Amino acid sequence: MSSNLVQCKQLVAKAVAAGAKALFLPEASDYIGKSATETVSLVRSVSESTFVLGLQEEARREKLAINVGVHEPAQGGKVKNTLLWIDQKGNIVQRYQKLHLFDVDIKNGPVLKESNSVEKGMSILPPFETPLGRVGLAICFDLRFPEISLALARMNCQVITYPSAFTVPTGTAHWEPLLRARAIETQSYVVAAAQVGAHNEKRVSYGHSMIISPWGEIIAKLGGQWEEPEIATADIDLDLVKKIKTEIPLLRRKYDQIFKCGDDQLLTNASDIYPEL
Ligand SMILES: O=C(O)CNC(=O)[C@H](CS)NC(=O)CCC(=O)C(=O)O
């Protein structure tokens, strides 16, 4: 955990040198356990976590907002997979708990049961003001559930963050198209800071951190090999968010416009998708 703090401090220094207003760090930046038992045994509350306290200190000193994924204690001997927003004064002002847990059993691929050690979150938080615009929070596997990003879009977010530690097989197949789809359908910037390389003999992360524009273009990208802590930087242009939302209005579209144009067959299923119809 102390070496993770050292690496995050290197990233802070790079972000400051680049003139960034905010730094987005990956999911589980404090540590990745080898097993459910280790994950639970390493957890600290934020007020006792040298990792979190260290980052708060960095944020305060450098006047840099920091978005970081960590673990927090939960009921029943489990942990929370949490995403913190630390403001430029070093205060924790937002805290999101991962909704969807990564329980998978892929043939010749990863077998992971996050719910063995992690308690799932229950709420989507309203996007909040930051120096970059209104940010909506989600974590890693949440990326596969567009309900979250669409809810954030309806609450008028401008940036969505998906700090991650994707596996290599699933990342190779799905990471980029999912991130681009979330940006396109929400017309928001997507910032996806990713862990990369080997954590232990059992876990390797895919990397390829990306920043996607609300038009769906990859505007910054890192690689998939671990070398040293690296940042990708991009300008967040809120006028572009507005322009795209004006040019292609998605949010205020009435359902009958969507479903009544053209093929009447579509109407049969519309109420399944939009129960309020
Ligand atoms: O283990 C920790 O402490 C941190 N948490 C993670 O790394 C989580 C749970 S194992 N990873 C993912 O959700 C990967 C999702 C993914 O790879 C996909 O959706 O394809």
Automatic annotation (TrEMBL):
Keyword match Cytoplasm: yes
GO cellular component, one term: cytoplasm
Localization of this protein: Cytoplasm
Record-linked PROSITE patterns: CN_HYDROLASE (PS50263)
Chief localization: cytoplasm
Record keyword Ligase present: no
Domain of life: Eukaryota
CN hydrolase domain span: 1-238
CDD domains noted in UniProt: nit
MF-aspect GO terms: hydrolase activity, acting on carbon-nitrogen (but not peptide) bonds, in linear amides
Keywords noted in UniProt: Cytoplasm, Hydrolase
InterPro entries, per database record: C-N_Hydrolase, C-N_Hydrolase_sf, Nit1/2_C-N_Hydrolase
Family: Belongs to the carbon-nitrogen hydrolase superfamily. NIT1/NIT2 family.
PANTHER family in the cross-refs: DEAMINATED GLUTATHIONE AMIDASE, NITRILASE-RELATED
Name under which the protein is recorded: Carbon-nitrogen hydrolase
